[in-house]
Amino acid sequence: xxxxxxxxxxxxxxxxxxxxxxxxxxxxxxxxxxxxxxxxxxxxxxxxxxxxxxxxxxxxxxxxxxxxxxxxxxxxxxxxxxxxxxxxxxxxxxxxxxxxxxxxxxxxxxxxxxxxxxxxxxxxxxxxxxxxxxxxxxxxxxxxxxxxxxxxxxxxxxxxxxxxxxxxxxxxxxxxxxxxxxxxxxxxxxxxxxxxxxxxxxxxxxxxxxxxxxxxxxxxxxxxxxxxxxxxxxxxxxxxxxxxxxxxxxxxxxxxxxxxxxxxxxxxxxxxxxxxxxxxxxxxxxxxxxxxxxxxxxxxxxxxxxxxxxxxxxxxxxxxxxxxxxxxxxxxxxxxxxxxxxxxxxxxxxxxxxxxxxxxxxxxxxxxxxxxxxxxxxxxxxxxxxxxxxxxxxxxxxxxxxxxxxxxxxxxxxxxxxxxxxxxxxxxxxxxxxxxxxxxxxxxxxxxxxxxxxxxxxxxxxxxxxxxxxxxxxxxxxxxxxxxxxxxxxxxxxxxxxxxxxxxxxxxxxxxxxxxxxxxxxxxxxxxxxxxxxxxxxxxxxxxxxxxxxxxxxxxxxxxxxxxxxxxxxxxxxxxxxxxxxxxxxxxxxxxxxxxxxxxxxxxxxxxxxxxxxxxxxxxxxxxxxxxxxxxxxxxxxxxxxxxxxxxxxxxxxxxxxxxxxxxxxxxxxxxxxxxxxxxxxxxxxxxxxxxxxxxxxxxxxxxxxxxxxxxxxxxxxxxxxxxxxxxxxxxxxxxxxxxxxxxxxxxxxxxxxxxxxxxxxxxxxxxxxxxxxxxxxxxxxxxxxxxxxxxxxxxxxxxxxxxxxxxxxxxxxxxxxxxxxxxxxxxxxxxxx
Length: 834
Hints:
Number of strands: 26
Protein name: Cation transporting ATPase PacS
CATH topology of the domain at 422-455 and 582-702: Rossmann fold
Largest sheet: 7 strands, mixed
Helix content: 40-55%
Strand content: 15-25%
Family: Belongs to the cation transport ATPase (P-type) (TC 3.A.3) family. Type IB subfamily.
Radius of gyration: 33 Å
Transmembrane segments: 124-145, 151-172, 184-206, 365-385, 391-417, 718-737, 743-762
Membrane topology: Multi-pass membrane protein
Organism: Legionella erythra
């Protein structure tokens, strides 16, 4: 059993801070039994998973002490169940926030600051003070040509005090990180540069040839705070703090003893009854107590329109009532912190905190970046001092320190991974880690399981036939149901369900004995002293049962059809044609992956003939079919074969036998469905919500965009930093140009803004997974987070419709709404209404 502790780290300021936190956790891994951990610079949040049976206040105190240098706050614990135990599904977690009484005094939940205090502490205000005062002091010195000593001393004292106040946070963070965790950060560069300026400026009162640069310290921190304010504004536009729970209402209506009362959502407890009004979002997981209603479960299934809701059905937070539905009465089964949306938010947060290989590369660069900048500043100062006045050498060295920007190197990768994970989640795929997302970007081969993945996994009997005069249709169903009664196979369930639906109590209750289920393609058993065999053509041939050569041609199987025979005494008695239909968007997904240049394979335990019929419908060549893979090991062997041929493989599956091949692939996509298995989700690198396959194409496209954005920003950041350091470190001086240190800060700010601007471009970039001509049908919002209107808009991750309904058939809309839809968007096409 493990417990995951989530926390905030307001004290981290750059990638070097993140590296030092990683080092602290690695150093204490054995003593505190850390399993995994991650820290995100963009949101300044982190997590650590500890091997223990329950949340422990002692562990909390250890974390407080370990991360004291980073002002750790808001610790909460989340109990992770053992997924190896039967009946335990991924996401069934229990969370607990430590009460203020258990926190250290400085960690207690802060009360909101008054407005004037928020203004005084804002980066905009501090930046304005530093910039205005610095410019004013610079103008005063330039215009007057020199001020009386008393006034200069007064201005010097004032500027020193203001510089120390504006940089108090940087000085504190630089000192505490140097002393407690022995690391150099961005704050170290600012502290060294501004303290050097202050020291040189004070010394200039006694050594005339030294430069007086009091205004430089003010401008450095002024520009620094303005840069931070702009960075925060851009991050707000990027929506880094937005979660799925952001759309939930603050208060809900609680039904208690027949009386409705409003209560805060966070205070709702298990088994309480709440009421959701039409158009509202289901805020908590629970059981539906209403009869004959409708629900929009787009966030779970990607369904295009609302579906009918049954009393007693389990609902998840994030589902939504259509505008024209009836009020819904819900019995709560999970509090806010344990709801589906809470687990989804935590999963996404942990995903982009886990380092991808490209982020580890950036981390290695950062380890040497700051020491290199300090070394280069000293070297440039010494070289320039040999040819130019010492005052110019000091000014250049300080400018080098503040022009370099290690924070962008540390921000580039987690920022892009976070945006990529959010975009992928909006399109129906949740990457478990940055490593999985990066692996998805290089995928060139996609291997798909057949039953339950490409198909719906809900086979139905479409035709039956008799091949012997000794039995009738009732006997065919009775004998087959008796053999298949205890089989877990989907075809067995289809036969038994059809038998009971057709004949019910009239069905002859035959009992089978000596049932041999060791065959993968069928089984054998004895009924009334007669041995029967049921299975596919391969099993019949294996057992010596002859099949008429023209029989298959007469039956004329179509794509998705499978043939199951019943035989006895080496003679065929009858057959069932069982169809497991393709998912509605399977063909569109295959076409989109082909258009993206992916090579497609089918890897299935079904027979070769069955796989060929599906492949023909999907446009996958016969040579790319790997059929008859009984068990996960054979499927995994096929994955290893493809990887040995230098393919970068993505495996898509849903069953228990897909767990091993999903783990063996470069990145695995687990399709959640009714027939899906928990081990598939556990071993996959990404989860696809049920109802659609198109998120796979979107996920691969978004991953490619994310890695491209990372490479662009990393390359630009390195080039920009090198150019800035070289220019300020002596090249401009050689050309007769000198820069005030404040200009170095301006260069750093420009770099940060360009990096964030490119990240914002990526956020707004559309997924190119679906060709333009196919995408024209998407007339509504493309994600769950956008789909908050009352009308059932078609999301981008929903399948292309194949059933056209007249407007009179649309549910939950009055005549005006239907006419409005038709007027604005032409013929309204929906799929899956009934």
